[in-house]
């Protein structure tokens, strides 16, 4: 018996696939669950939590769209370069041993020198290409190991097309230590999802967006805040005062530089640093109506 069961096919019914992804923690969720710093702008534990309990949105950015367009070509070229039997897969699968864990592999492959079937995770990247200079980035490695855990397979590969011009790839072996960490972290978050207990925000941009999605409106109610927030409040006020002093000091320095420049366009310091002070124009525009909650302090 396979270590996994097939839930649905992302190629034949995308909406069903998006809905089914809410029934567990997928491989693309794992880097956020583990709080990997390099992806915290886009995902975090509380962001994954929010995604699982809110309505499905079929969000499709330009990078995502082009990634899907390029993916079959990357798969084909990888198979040709490696002389392997590679087949597009893209089925949402669920682990039988850890049923809260899901995965959607881009492709599966067979290689004469390796036992059984392997996964193939495909990436197309541009502006973050430098992340690959020292090998497979941590968040991609976690994603691939999550897939190996769900499928029950022993090996796989990652292929990345960098800036549409360079194809890199590397084989990976099953890492039981990392998989155990993934299983533990995803189980903890899934328990929180089932019990309606969101994890603490981590200060990331993705956590800010998650809080806005979780609590978009206020009720008018006044509540008692936890006692541990008193120390954080003191720290926040200290930071606020320091930021104001730094802002005022920066403004003072900027004024000294502007005065020294006078009506000149550019000035150069002896150490080679240059400052420019050019006239710029900004077109007027109307700000679109929006609703959002604002945090303010009093007392």
Describe it for me?
- This protein has 299 residues and is an alpha+beta fold.
- The protein has one domain: Lambda Exonuclease, Chain A (Alpha-Beta Complex).
- Helix content is 39%, strand content 18%.
- β3 and β4 (102-104) form a beta hairpin.
- α5 crosses α6 (176-195).
- The chain is globular.
- The model has no long low-confidence stretch (mean pLDDT 91).
Major sheet: size, sense and barrel closure? 5 strands, mixed
Topology pattern, helix = H, strand = E: EHHHHEEEEEHEEHHHEE
Percent strand: 15-25%
Structural class label: alpha+beta
Helical segment count: 8
Count of separate structural domains: 1
Query: End-to-end span in angstroms?
Result: 64 Å
Q: Which CATH architecture is right?
A: Alpha-Beta Complex
Strand and helix layout:
Layout: E1 4-9, H1 14-20, H2 30-33, H3 45-53, H4 62-82, E2 85-88, E3 91-95, E4 102-104, E5 107-110, E6 117-125, H5 138-151, E7 155-162, E8 166-173, H6 176-195, H7 205-214, H8 229-261, E9 266-268, E10 274-276
Parallel strand pairs: 6-7
Antiparallel strand pairs: 1-3, 2-5, 3-4, 5-6, 7-8, 9-10
